[in-house]
Amino acid sequence: MSCFHRAWSDQRHDSFLKTLLPFDEIMKNRFYALIALSIFAFTLPVTGKSSAQSSPQTLKIPEIVAKVNGVEIQSKYIEFRLNQILNNVKRPLTMREKTSVVKDLIEKEVVRELVHQQGQKKNLEIDSDLIDKEMKALREPYTSDEEFEKALGERNITLDDLKKSMTVDINARQLLNEQIKGKITIADEEVKKYYDDNMEKFHRPESYRTRHILAAIFPPDMLRSTPVAELQSRREELTKKAEERIDEILKELKAGANFEELAKKKSDDEASRENGGDLDIIYKGVFDPTFDEAVAKLNPGEITGKVETRYGFHVIKLIEKHPAEQAPFDELEQAIQKHLFMEEAKKLVEVYIEDLRKQAKIETFFH
Asked: Of 242, 264, 301, 309, which is most buried, counting CB atoms within 10 Å of its CB?
């Protein structure tokens, strides 16, 4: 999956939530999912080495950051996640901000280990098929096992580390699910009342469906195999090449080439390429403003000239537009029910974790 489509997919999912919840509730809902149902997913970016500017080494993080009932939590897991965060923020973080992030990450690892230990006491059976499935999903973007292991090694993580982390995640997830199973009931009346009381939250923004052809600044194969520092040093050169590619694509379209077929052959967006560049529904305001502005000028069936975003250069074809509207209750009923369920689940999980804390010996060594 290309970096463009992965980011767009995340934003498209967020845009659906925005039709349901205001921003502060969206953020809380993410927290519920993180704590209650999908403990600290262990993800690996498909780009190369982290840049030196994003290195956590400027912080003095001890090799052992905490102990939970005598079990050590190693700094490499904290540094791995810290690098993920630093590589995705739009500006450099101050030392105080980095320190705060590290403390939050340590707290999450402590909770994860605490719940995992309780799961071990209860002899919960680990779903090995699920571990294999998640390992396969992480391996998928890489062209070979060697490339995958190299990417892990560059982050001081081994395959065994990764599998252990996933085992802990899944074990903790199973235990927390056991704690809320059968304890929460959301009545239909509660769901309807929430909708009626919060009508202003369910105003769906204008949306559109498009196809696009992307000439990426950093093509997928290059992203998978080239260190970030090298990519950044070549950005100007690669941007020029991407623009030249999109100019050639525009010439072919003007000469009568079929948009869908050309997208299948030449688009750098691997996820939409097979579908002729189809991006499905995008809500206005949740993706790149330049993309929105270009689409706003089109009528269905028309295509843009070259459109530059942070991912590269696009040619966009508008399929259909949808005006802003009030989302009907029937369409949101299940999503609201899930939201209310998560509210109750969070309360139960917080009480459960606090009880575990009272019984545990927890030591932290980063201050």
From this structure: 242
Please give the DSSP secondary-structure letter assigned to residue 269: -
Among candidate residues 144, 127, 142, 75, the one with its CA nearest the CA of residue 106: 75
Lowest mean pLDDT segment, chosen from 15-29, 59-73, 334-348: 15-29
Integer CA distances (angstroms), 167 to 12, 42, 78, 353, in order: 30, 10, 17, 19
Q: Where are the alpha helices (DSSP H) in 267-322?
A: 270-273, 289-296
pLDDT in tens, 122-169: 888 878 888 888 888 888 888 889 988 888 888 788 888 888 888 888
pTM equals 0.59
Q: Please give the structure tokens belonging to residue 224.
A: 């998978």
**Alpha-carbon span 211 to 89, nearest angstrom:** 28
Q: Which residues of 288-316 are buried (b: 16+ CB within 10 A; e: fewer)?
A: beebbebbeebeeeebbebbbbebbbbbb
Q: For residue 289, what are its two tokens? A: 């403003």
Q: Which long-range contacts (CB under 8 A, 24 or more apart) does 88-96 make?
A: 92/53, 95/58, 95/59
Give start and end residues of each alpha helix (H) in the chain. Answer: 3-18, 23-32, 75-86, 95-121, 128-139, 145-153, 159-180, 188-197, 220-225, 228-233, 235-254, 259-266, 270-273, 289-296, 329-359
Instruction: Write out the DSSP string of 75-98.
Output: HHHHHHHHHHHHTTSSSPPPHHHH
Angle at Cα 28 formed by Cα 26 and Cα 30, nearest 5°?
A: 70
> What pLDDT score was predicted for residue 30?
32
As a whole number of angstroms, the distance between CA 64 and CA 50 comes to: 22
CB atoms near residue 228 (< 10 Å): 19
Q: For each of the domains in the chain, give its residue range(s) and CATH number, in order of start.
A: 3-188+330-364 (1.10.4030.10), 206-323 (3.10.50.40)
Which of the 8 DSSP states describes residue 36?
Answer: I
Pseudo-torsion of CA 110, 112, 114, 119, nearest 10°? -170
- 84 in Cβ contact with 108 (< 8 Å): no
Which residues, including other chains, have CB under 8 Å from residue 190's CB and lie 6 or more apart?
A: 340
